[in-house]
Amino acid sequence: MTETSDLVARRVTVDFTGVRADWNQVHPEFGHLTNAMSLMLPFMEPFFIKTMREAKKRLPAGPSALKRDIDLFNFQEGRHYSNHARLNDIIRAAHPEPVTEGEARLRADYQRYWARGHKFALAYTEGFETVAPLLCDYFFGNLHRFGLDSGEAAAYLWLWHVAEEHEHRTVANYVYHELYRDYRYRVFGILFATWHVFAFSLPIAGRTLLDARRRMTARERWHSRARYARLLAGMFGMFLPQLALRACRPGYDPADLEPHPDARALLDEALARFGEATPRGAGEPA
Ligand SMILES: [Fe+2]
Ligand SMILES: [Fe+2]
């Protein structure tokens, strides 16, 4: 287990001026699925922050590298969800009914999850944080296919977000090991978080896609269905073996995962394009 990491607090604010809910013209189905996932983040990431703040109180007294990383993790998650919340305003305006219904469900879900206790909250957090670096590799490995190299602000948001997810991949895992070290429960957390993400996002994406397909010709509708089926098959075909063969193993250490070379470069670029770095050691930046 590595005790120190290289997290950077980037004060990124993506400019969504002129962005539409159907921002992805290269792979519209990918746009709908990631829009549905985006809706979760202003509920999910505050839950992570709350969980990690509570974890900090439960760790041994005194300063430590892990506590410093928790602060930086919380800073990054805070920037993620505040940027996604602004994209979600655009998605909600285009699809008010499924989005407001979905958001009400998420509010209730995370209240229930918090009531299940800190071990559950941290296992859920760790579960998502185990899946997120895989998402990073998948997105950066398919930049062109998914229209993520378009320069669109929403595409940029996702690339910056998943690149930082890869950057802070060790934090929740190391905190979980410090506090609970329960292997089976960790696997449960991974499965539960993965189930929750897809149980929420697939039906929402299905509904917004149905809306979009009403404006398509019969031929375009068939192409759309085929593209969506290929997207899901590719995504699950990547995730499931990676989770089963690597991330769920007892000796899994997220520090061993190498970042995609383009992800590192994008983080520097994101800073130049949309933000500023916050000096380290300043506690948990607001
Ligand atoms: Fe995040
Ligand atoms: Fe994260």
UniProtKB/TrEMBL annotation:
Q: Which UniProt keywords apply?
A: Hydrolase, Membrane, Transmembrane, Transmembrane helix
> Which InterPro entries did the record assign?
UCP07580 (IPR016516)
Matching Pfam families, A to Z? Metal_hydrol
Transmembrane regions: 187-206
Provide any one GO MF term from the record.
Answer: hydrolase activity
The name this protein goes by in its record: Metal-dependent hydrolase
**What lineage is this protein's organism placed in?**
Bacteria, Bacillati, Actinomycetota, Actinomycetes, Pseudonocardiales
